[in-house]
Amino acid sequence: MLHARVLPLLIWLVYRALQFTWRIHVVEAPEFRNLRASSTPVVFAHWHGDELAILHLLKPYRACAMVSHSKDGAIMAGAIALLGAKTSRGSSTRGGVGALKGILRLTKEGWNPSVAIDGPKGPYHRAKPGVFEISKLIGAPIVPLSVAVSRAYIFEKAWNKTFLPLPFARIQVIFAKPLPALRREADSRDETWATQLESALANAEQQARNLIAST
């Protein structure tokens, strides 16, 4: 129990110390800015592995995350709570229904779901149906979210190549043009949606890398 209480605090302290040194630049597509201005709910879609570079965005963008029921998930949920954001516990392999209900409840409270679309175990950079199902259920556009960093430590043994920006790294965040919300009758498993979102994320990632390289 002590382990579960202390580790999130330590992670939060280290993360906030690193964040203080980062040079963060955010680019928002005009279409996304319009949605924010009108307080329209959205679903943020990003790749698994990008989490540590974008955790600082959760609170200002009213984003809520889905985290697993594992011990690591409990630690992450605690750290996210200290960062001022909300989580729903579960994944597509365990507790998925409960996690989805939690996400829908948080959406009604004004939070925007943030989904690692190739999780929880891959395949790497392949969009799964979950994000499209959430879009259908809440009638929200999907906003591709990508990030590039100038310097990072990469956890090579992780299947998703999770990375942590190093001190004084430059971080470039891209909120790309939203994809329209799926209609209720749409098939969330249709590969057309996955292909469109994968392409949008690839373009956003390249844009972020280009901006990093030019500064």
Produce a short descriptive summary:
The protein is an alpha/beta fold and 215 residues long.
Protein described:
The chain has 215 residues and is of the alpha/beta class. Helices cover 41% and strands 20% of the residues. It has a single domain, classed as Glycerol-3-phosphate (1)-acyltransferase, CATH 3.40.1130. The chain has 7 helices and 9 strands, in the order αβαβαβαβαβαββββα. β7 (152-154) and β8 form a beta hairpin. The N and C termini lie far apart (45 Å). 39% of the residues are buried.
**Strands, count:** 9
Q: Which architecture does the CATH hierarchy give at level 2?
A: 3-Layer(aba) Sandwich
Number of continuous helical runs: 7
End-to-end Cα distance, whole Å, is: 45 Å
Q: Considering DSSP H and I runs of 4 or more, what fraction of the residues is helical?
A: 40-55%
Return the CATH topology: Glycerol-3-phosphate (1)-acyltransferase
Main beta-sheet strand count, sense and barrel state: 7 strands, mixed
Query: Any low-confidence stretches, pLDDT <50, length ≥5?
Result: none
Number of domains: 1
N-to-C order of helices and strands: HEHEHEHEHEHEEEEH
Radius of gyration: 16 Å
Average predicted local confidence, pLDDT: 90
Name the CATH class. Alpha Beta
Q: Strand percentage, roughly?
A: 15-25%
Query: Within the largest sheet, what's the order of strands?
Result: 1-9-6-2-5-3-4
Query: Which structural class do you get from the secondary structure elements?
Result: alpha/beta
Shape: globular
